[in-house]
Amino acid sequence: MSRPLPEPTAQQLLEALATQQQQGEQLRAGLARLLHDELGALLAAARLELSRLRQGQPQAVAAALGAVERQLVQALEIKRQSVEVLRPGLLDHFGLLVALRSRFEQRCGAEGVPLRCQLPPGSAPLAPAHAVALYRLAEAVLESALGAGAGALALSGEVAGGILQLQIAREGIAAELERSPLALGLILGLRWLGGSYAQGPGPGGGSQWLLAAPLAPPPS
């Protein structure tokens, strides 16, 4: 006769959640590499071949091949965007601060929202898991803030006491990060890694979010 499983503790649930998120990021990174290296190479090679075939062809044939080539260019752009969503290349190659600045500028520019960005120069020495956790949660906060209505948005950060702290603020808007299972999982995942998350009133009656994570210890 089977016995019922014991109820997991809060610590066990947090550990399981953190493990699941890390495995999910590994899958996303693997898929991003596959799209970039394999599919990207195939599409680029097909475009080059089409460009070669157009040479010396009758006008109608060359025009048809040109239309196919333009579709391949669109496919390459969709591939690039998909790779960036799965795993931002700036995050891996230049660090969290550069990746966040680029993402906030891109999204605020697309939405026509003024952005003030004051991040520390250089790159903060974070462990990969901490950098990804901060990026994903900051991205979720950004989308919640952008969906709240009018008002300028500010992104700032500082390094002090071995901790990187990020502040995101939206002026004049009382916005709250949606407590969806995904958002709650991102918050708990950051806390499991030793980070923190808080939200409160911001300047001008708006909202602000504080995200923090410990820096990686210096190499011995």
Structure overview:
- With 220 residues, the chain is of the alpha+beta class.
- The protein has helices spanning 10-54, 59-86, 89-94, 96-111, 128-146, 181-192, and strands at residues 115-118, 153-160, 163-170, 196-201, 207-214.
- The mean pLDDT is 81.
- A five-stranded mixed β-sheet has the order 1-2-3-5-4, with helices on one face.
- The N and C termini lie far apart (53 Å).
- The protein has two domains: 10-86; 89-214, Histidine kinase-like ATPase, C-terminal domain (Heat Shock Protein 90), CATH 3.30.565.10.
How many beta strands in the DSSP annotation?
A: 5
Rg over CA atoms: 22 Å
CATH topology type of the largest domain: Heat Shock Protein 90
The amount of helix comes to: 55-70%
Sheet with the most strands: spatial strand order = 1-2-3-5-4
In CATH terms, the superfamily of the largest domain is: Histidine kinase-like ATPase, C-terminal domain
Question: What is the CA–CA distance across the termini?
Answer: 53 Å
Total domain modules? 2
Name some characteristics of this structure.
5 strands, globular, alpha+beta
Record the SSE blueprint.
Blueprint: H1 10-54, H2 59-86, H3 89-94, H4 96-111, E1 115-118, H5 128-146, E2 153-160, E3 163-170, H6 181-192, E4 196-201, E5 207-214
Parallel strand pairs: 1-2
Antiparallel strand pairs: 2-3, 3-5, 4-5
Helix pairs in contact: 1-2, 1-6, 4-5, 5-6
Quick summary:
This protein is an alpha+beta fold. The protein is built from six helices and five strands. It is globular and about 70 Å long.
